[in-house]
Amino acid sequence: MTIREFVPREHGAWAMWIVPMLSAAIVTQFSASFFLLFVCFALLYTVHHPIVMMLKRKSIADPRDLKQVIAVAMPAVLLGIALVWFGGLVWLLLFGIAEIAIFTFSVKSFLDREQRSVFNELAVVAALTLSAPAAFYAITGKLGPTAIILYALNFLFFGSSVFYVKMRIEFLRFKGAWTGEARKARAMVIAYHLFLVLAVASAAFYGIMSIWILLGFVPMLVQVMIGTLSGKTKVSFARLGFALVGQSAIFLVVIGAFLR
Fold first, then answer.
1. Which of 86, 188, 219, 256 sits at a 20 to 30 Å CA gap from 164?
2. Tens of pLDDT along 149-189?
3. Which residues does 202 contact at the CB level (< 8 Å), separation at least 6?
C-alpha cells in the first residue's frame, strides 16, 4: 500500500469535518483538547480510504497493509482514550460509536457499489459533521443548544453538495436534458434548498439564531440557482470540490461572526 492511498483526494470531504470542527472552536475557543481531537479526527479520516481499498482488493489480512493502517489508526485510538480517560470527556465515546457505525455502513455501501446513493452520501455527511458537536464538547466539557445548532447548520450546508452533485451527474447522464432522473434530481435540489432557507429563517424568527446566518449559505445558493438553469454538459467535479472549500470558508466566517 502506497503513501498516496493514505491521502484522501476528495477536497470537499476534507472540508466536511474540518470546517464543522473549526466552527465549534471559533464560537467558543481554541484549546489543547480541541487540537488533540483535531489530530484524532485527521488520523481516523486518513485510514478510511486504505481500509476500503483493502476490503475491495481482499487484502485485509495482508500483514504489511494491516501494519500500515494500524500504525496510523493506533495514535488516533490512544488520543481518543486520553481525552476520555484523562480529560473526563466520557460522552466522546458516544461520538466514537456513532462514527464507527456510520463508517461501517459507508464501507458496506462502497463494497455493494451503492456509495453514490443520496442516502449513503448524507450518512457520510452526518458522520463527518459530527466533528462540530464533538469539538464543542471537547472544548467546553458540555453539550447544549449551541452544539446542536452547529451540527444542524453544518449538516444543512454540506448536505447541499450531495443533492447538487447528484443533479449534475444525472444531467450529464441524460446528455443535457432535464428528463427522467435528471428532472427528479433537480426537483430534489430545489426542495432541499427551499427547506434549508425556511429552516434557518424559522430558527431566526424564534430567536434561536441570527437571520444573518443565511449569508453563509449565499454562495452555495447562487451556485445551485445557476446549476439548475445551466445547460452545460461539461462539469469539472474537481472544480466543484475546490468551490466547496471556498464556500466553506465563507460559511465559517459567517458562523464565527453571527453565532457567538
1. 256
2. 999 999 999 999 889 888 888 888 777 777 788 888 889 99
3. none
Is the separation of the CB atoms in 153 and 248 below 8 Å?
A: no
| 61 grid coordinates | 489480512
How do the domains of the chain map onto residue ranges? 3-258
Q: H/E element holding 170?
A: helix 145-173
Residue whose C-alpha cell is 452544539: 147
Cell 445558493, residue located:
221
Positive or negative CA dihedral for 89, 74, 126, 160? positive
Quote the CA–CA distance of 196 and 61 in Å, as a whole number: 44
pTM over 0.70: yes
DSSP 90-159: TTHHHHHHHHHHHHHHHHHHHHTT-TTSHHHHHHHHHHHTTHHHHHHHHHHS---HHHHHHHHHHHHHHH
Average pLDDT, the chain: 84
131 touches 13 (CB < 8 A): no
Q: Taking a C-beta distance cutoff of 8 angstroms, is the pair 23, 128 a contact?
A: no
Q: Distance of alpha carbon 227 from its chain centroid, rounded?
A: 21
CA angle 10, 15, 18 (to 5 degrees): 130
CA 196 vs CA 69, 188, 208: distances in Å:
38, 12, 15
Give dist(CA 78, CA 60) in Å, integer. 22
